[in-house]
Amino acid sequence: MHILFPTALGLLDLRLIIHLRWRYSRGFSQTWRQLLQIPSNASAGRKTAVAVTHCKAGRGLIKINGVPIELVQPEILRYKAFEPILLLGRHKFAGVDMRIRVKGGGHTSQIYAIRQSISKALVAYYQKFVDEEQKKEIKDILVRYDRTLLVADPRRCEPKKFGGRGARARFQKSYR
How far is residue 99's CA from residue 125's CA, in Å, rounded to a whole number? Predict the structure, then answer.
């Protein structure tokens, strides 16, 4: 029994795909990797928001939860989601399709998770399919502008303790 999967080459047998994956992991030409459209994945988070990006060779489409990036809501934060694209230029994203799934958190946290995820996915794609020199160039541009485009913010909300209204605030003390 043959299990067929759609790829850029047409329908391929599962055994052939496994064989090709085994071969490319041992130095097989990168054109085969692109023809099989093996995606480069990256995830990013901000507070409780998590964004996962699947990045593969394509026509430059960027969709967030099935919606084009140009229609991201809220409109005020749309520019923040566009930052990696504006910094690097549309030509870097021209041959890449990105599908981003984001959940959790609020609007602002989701947008910050999206922009970090886009940046990390593009760096991973360039490392995997293009070359190390261009990857380093992209990484340097992003880090020079804003380090949080590639590095997660480690701050988390501290849990409340007894004896006060919050994590550090204490109830007022009376001596008389």
Answer: 13
- Between helix 107-129 and helix 132-145 the angle, nearest 10°, is 160
CA gap 137, 120 in Å, rounded: 13
The answer to whether the CB of 120 falls within 8 A of the CB of 150 is yes
Confirm if 70 and 44 have CB atoms less than 8 A apart. no
| pLDDT one-digit tens code per residue, 36-93 | 567 888 999 999 999 999 998 889 999 999 999 999 988 899 999 999 999 999 999 9
Expressed in angstroms, the distance from the first to the final Cα of the chain is 86
- CA–CA dist 168, 158 (Å, integer): 9
Cβ atoms of 51 and 116 within 8 Å: the answer is yes
Alpha carbon distance 75, 49 (integer Å) = 18
pLDDT bucket at 112, cuts 50 / 70 / 90 = very high
Q: Give the confidence band of 176 by pLDDT, cuts at 50, 70, 90.
A: confident
pTM here? 0.75
Pairing label, strands 62-64, 96-103: parallel
DSSP 125-176: HHHHHS-HHHHHHHHHHHHHH-GGGTS-----PPPP-TTSSSSS--PPP---
